[in-house]
Amino acid sequence: MAGHVGSGRLRASEIAALLGGSAALAGSWVVVAASGAVPEWEADAFELVNGLPDVLWPVVWVPMQLGSIGGSLVVVALTALVSRNVRLTVAALAAEQATFWGAKVVKRLVERGRPSSLLADVDTRENLRGLGYLSGHAAIAAALATVLIPSLPRRWQWVAVAAACVVALGRLYSGAHLPLDVIGGAGFGVVCGILARRALGLGGDDEDPLHRPFAQPATAR
C-alpha cells in the first residue's frame, strides 16, 4: 500500500527535506570553515535581530526553551501522552538525543566562537558557555518539528514550523548564535528528524490520515 506507515519508499517531501537539510548543514559548515571572519551579510542579519528591544526577552525566552534539553523532553513526554503512539514517541526521543549529542560533536569539529568573541557590541541576554556552530537549540527544535509535522493535523503543522523558527530567531536575539549557526543547526535537525521517522517505520506526510496518531476519527455516516 503506497501510503501505509512503514513503506520503504522515500516520499518526495522526505527527499526534499533531506536534501534541504543536508544543503543547509553542508553549506553553512563550508562557509564557516572557509573563513575565520564573520561575513558582512551574516553580521548585518545578526545585528538586525540581536538589536531588538530588551522588552521582548521574556516573550522570546519561553518558547525558546523548546530547543533546550529540558524543554524538548517535555515535548517528547507530551507526544507520548497525547498521541499514545510508541513509535512516534520513540522517534521524537531518538531525534532529540541524536541531535543533542551530534551537535556537540560538530561544535568540537568546527570550533567557532560565540558572537561576542567574533563581533563588537553584541547584546548577550543569557549566560553562555561553549562554542557557537552549530546551534543545538535550533537543531533540536527542527528535529522535533520534522518528526511531528507529518503526524499532526494540518492546522497544527504550521504551529510546529513557527515554533522551530521562533527558537532559531531567539538564539540570535539572545546573542548566543550567529545566523550560520542556526542555519546549520536547523539543517542538522531536519536530517536527524527524517532519519528517526524512517528508522521507526513512520510514513510521510501523504500517509493515510487514519494512521496519523493526532488525527481526529472520521465521522460516522
Overall strand count: 0
What portion of the residues fall into strands of 2 or more residues?
under 5%
Shape: globular
Helix and strand run: HHHHHHHHH
SS class = mainly alpha
Average of per-residue pLDDT values: 90
Main sheet specs: none
What quaternary form is this?
Answer: single chain
- Helix content range: 55-70%
**How far apart lie the N and C ends?**
25 Å
How many DSSP helices? Answer: 9
How many domains, as an integer?
Answer: 1
Low-confidence stretches: 1-6, 205-211, 215-221
How does this structure look, described?
The chain is mainly α and 221 residues long. It has one domain (29-34, 50-205). 63% of the residues lie in helices and 0% in strands. The chain has 9 helices and no strands. The longest helix is centred in the middle third of the chain and has 25 residues, at 86-110. Mean pLDDT is 90; it is low at 1-6, 205-211 and 215-221.
SSE layout and pairing:
Elements: H1 12-34, H2 40-50, H3 57-64, H4 69-83, H5 86-110, H6 115-118, H7 136-148, H8 154-173, H9 179-199
Helix pairs in contact: 1-9, 3-8, 4-5, 4-7, 5-7, 5-9, 7-8, 7-9, 8-9
Features of the shown structure:
single chain; 221 residues; mainly alpha; 9 helices; 63% helix; globular; disordered N terminus; disordered C terminus
